[in-house]
Amino acid sequence: MTKYSHDMLIGELTRLSDSKPGIMQALQRTQELLGFVPDTAIDQVADVCNVSRAEVYGVLTFYSDFRREAPADVVVKVCVAESCQSVGSRQVVKELHDHGYDVHSGNQKDGIACEQTFCLGNCALAPAAMINGKPLGRASATSILAAAKAAK
Length: 152
Ligand code: FES
What we know:
Blueprint: H1 6-17, H2 23-34, H3 42-49, H4 53-62, E1 74-79, H5 82-86, H6 89-98, E2 108-109, E3 112-117, E4 129-131, E5 134-136, H7 141-151
Parallel strand pairs: 1-3
Antiparallel strand pairs: 1-4, 2-3, 4-5
Helix pairs in contact: 1-2, 1-3, 2-3, 3-4
The chain binds FE2/S2 (inorganic) cluster.
């Protein structure tokens, strides 16, 4: 992730303004550069796109792919779809919650964020998880947290 810099963002968005970017394009570029879209970027995107702050905010909050906070060092995806539920993912989710990680909200703790997802394509090794893009099969809360700490 690139460290946030107002000057860098303004420069990049100004370059985009030559091609009259849409709100989505400007928000996507902001997220590419910064790893997320901070509230402080809303004014800059609105200026570049010549729209209101409310319009930018509406698009930003509608699409779940846009992050509004800096991502954690380690992002854990925990599958909560049917195959994984049938072999214990609910218990994994509960145990992660007991350790302070709410996969439903995707909160961050100690540089680790645990988020829910729906099928990682690894149903044969359910319950499935993914740590910074690396698959983990037959996952338990213990194995997930150990892998997440090792990935830091
Ligand atoms: S349902 Fe969990 S990996 Fe497919």
